[in-house]
Here is the input.
Amino acid sequence: MSASAPHADSAFVRACRGEAHDHVPVWFMRQAGRALAEYRAIREQHTFEEVVHTPDLATEVTLQPVQRYGVDAAILFSDIVTPVQALGIGLTIQPGVGPVVERPFRTPGDVDRLRDLEPDSDVPYVLETVSQLVAELDVPLIGFGGAPFTLASYLVEGGPSKSYTRTKALMFSDEPTWRRLLDQLADITLASLRAQVEHGAAAVQLFDSWAGALHPDDYRRFVLPHSRRVLEGLADLGVPRIHFGVGTGELLGAMAEAGADVVGVDWRVPLEQAWDRVPTDVALQGNLEPALALGPTEALLERTREVLRASGGRARYVFNLGHGVLPPTDPDQLRRVVELVHAEGAVVTEPARG
Ligand code: CP3
Here is the structure.
């Protein structure tokens, strides 16, 4: 299965699997978007939702950073809330705000507003975009989805949150409803990810962006089993599974245990220490502080070198930022980071496994 997976010989897929390859691969979370003038030009003509729902536009926007930065992988242009939005729950994505839910999910009955996702009929535009991209790209395409906790946080809070108070209140006060909600969200994300892979995505990333808000014991009890439902549900497809969250330094081991091949690390955790927190057959992805790209080039490149040094020449390593590209970033800065990673990012220590 794995030998015939798309782009099995690319540096990116080989790094995700800890197999020997010739250079450290690099891509950036949120690489498509407002840092690029060519993206803003499209957004002047179309809303975010129009871009996501129109395969030609979503394809173009996905390709923009590949052309501009020379990264080793593309990430589908879409959003973590796109599948739940397609179920007609009254969710919109507001510019400068993020996902907003008209009637937030607060009661047991609210869970019944969700149903299983049928990718072919609910999100045909996503699958058509994946197919177009796979036909056009020379590099692997990363599909992605939202992890149950992070999706639940938007549905329960009704929008972005800093404290996740209502989400945690539901989790601690009504465990049966919480588990029903998270299982339903897990099934939606799993169906979406399986369809993306079936249409040619070479890897998937599960974004649990806000899981870092939880104590490790609560993460293990209330969240991990539901994220595992997604990650293990993908195992038979044979593509690498990346699991990422922000502020998850204390959760890296648990996020690996949930069934990830690669764990994403944010910029707060020294990469040298992150290696000790995951098993030796799990790869890491990260973790340059994204705000460094807003400062002088010299300091940005010096820190890029430090992150490369901290990767220790391991094969099981993918260079990335510690979170998404910040909108005011000058794209030339990121292009220089890619050039440096490609010029100096040597894979030295681990031979191919298996
Ligand atoms: O990485 C990429 O380039 C692929 C595209 C992508 C988007 N969202 C496009 C987008 C991906 C992978 C996402 C995932 C996503 N969406 C996450 C996980 C990643 C992370 O940041 O941790 C989350 C939490 C969301 C929810 C969401 N959608 C937020 C917080 C926002 C930002 C609101 C804003 O405008 O600041 C969105 C909207 C969104 N998704 C934009 C983009 C390019 C901005 C829309 C625009 O104005 O063009």
The pocket of coproporphyrinogen III is lined by residues 29-34, 43, 48, 75, 77, 79-80, 93, 95-99, 144, 160, 207, 209, 324 (CB under 6 Å). The longest strand covers residues 141-146.
